[in-house]
Design brief:
Elements (H helix, E strand, L loop, with lengths): L10 E2 L33 E2 L1 H7 L6 E7 L4 E8 L8 E2 L5 E7 L1 E6 L5 E3 L3 E5 L5 E6 L4 E8 L5 E2 L31 E3 H7 L14 E8 L11 E2 L5 E7 L1 E6 L5 E4 L3 E4 L5 E5 L4 E8 L7 E2 L4
Length: 301
């Protein structure tokens, strides 16, 4: 079945903790939690943006894979030097999206009027749309890009494909039409639509294969260590920190606080808890390789 997926950009506004409890009665069953939920490289609980920038200091262009699930999603931080363009590619079977961390990008998507993305803009590209980005201005443009692991890029005629282990690029035709956006926008501007606009206009959609949810909340006191949060049975979860500080307790890792631009990951089946830290607002982009996931909660003590 061909997946025609758009990103779920669901906004959760700041509210008292009691108001955030799920509707309905808490029910119980026996969840098949893995005996262990190991981190498989390159995945780790916390990638600090500051450490990545230090590791790539002096490089105007670079790319590093931070997240990879064999049958799920892959996430890269990608930096383009001023004036540099990405190859023109499409993803024939799945959506992709990226979040701009710094700089400016000229984004050209097949069937969409070209636009400029700045810090905090989340761009989504449905399947079978060719897309190309170009770094504008005097500074490099840094983005975090998420793709389906099993859907590598299909290069446009005239481009030189980047080699992929286990693949051989061959010239091939196709009839598939680009998947429609429907009533969804090609991008959400976090600062304009969420921070300044109070969250109105972000919209949401749930489809097969991927979801990305914007969660914005005011800071709360740190819960006790006995509060392990929840886990997901069949999918990992990872986050891009859009704003402020987010406190995490993840199975197999010590408590830590993630800053804006950091990437946080938990394997499928791993207990995890995320709460807004610091003193102001905190926002995380929560990413799953499924349209919706069930939170398996620890019973109250």
């Amino acid at each position: 079945m061909k997946i025609r997926t758009l990103i779920a950009l669901t906004l959760v506004l700041a509210a008292p903790a009691a108001a955030q409890a799920p509707a309905g009665n808490l029910q119980y069953g026996w969840a098949p939690k893995p005996v262990s939920a190991p981190f498989v490289a390159p995945n780790r609980a916390h990638w600090k943006l500051a450490d990545l920038q230090k590791a790539h200091a002096g490089q105007k262009s670079w790319s590093q894979m931070l997240v990879r699930d064999a049958k799920g999603l892959t996430g890269h931080y990608i930096q383009l030097a001023p004036g540099q363009k990405s190859p023109k590619v499409m993803y024939s079977d799945s959506v992709i999206f990226f979040v701009l961390q710094s700089g400016e990008l000229r984004v050209t998507i097949e069937g969409v009027e070209p636009f400029t993305a700045t810090k905090g803009v989340i761009v989504q590209v449905p399947s079978a749309h060719f897309v190309q980005v170009e770094a504008l201005g005097a500074a490099p443009a840094l983005r975090f890009e998420v793709t389906q692991t099993l859907s590598p890029p299909y290069y446009a005629e005239g481009e030189t494909p980047v080699p992929i282990r286990g693949r051989r690029f061959v010239r091939a035709g196709y009839y598939t039409a680009p998947a429609p956006y429907g009533d969804k926008k090609p991008f959400v501007d976090f600062q304009k639509d969420i921070v300044q606009g109070g969250g109105r206009g972000a919209g949401s959609v749930q489809d097969d294969g991927i979801s990305a949810n914007i969660n914005r909340q005011a800071s709360v006191p740190r819960p006790p260590a006995s509060d392990k949060g929840h886990f997901h049975i069949g999918t990992s979860e990872f986050w891009f920190i859009l704003e402020g500080q987010v406190d995490y307790l993840i199975e197999g890792a010590p408590f830590f606080t993630a800053q804006q631009g950091d990437i946080v990951y938990v394997p499928a089946g791993g207990w995890h808890r995320a709460t807004s830290g610091g003193t102001g607002m905190a926002t995380r982009l929560s990413i799953h390789s499924a349209a919706s996931t069930l939170n398996a909660l620890e019973p109250p003590r």
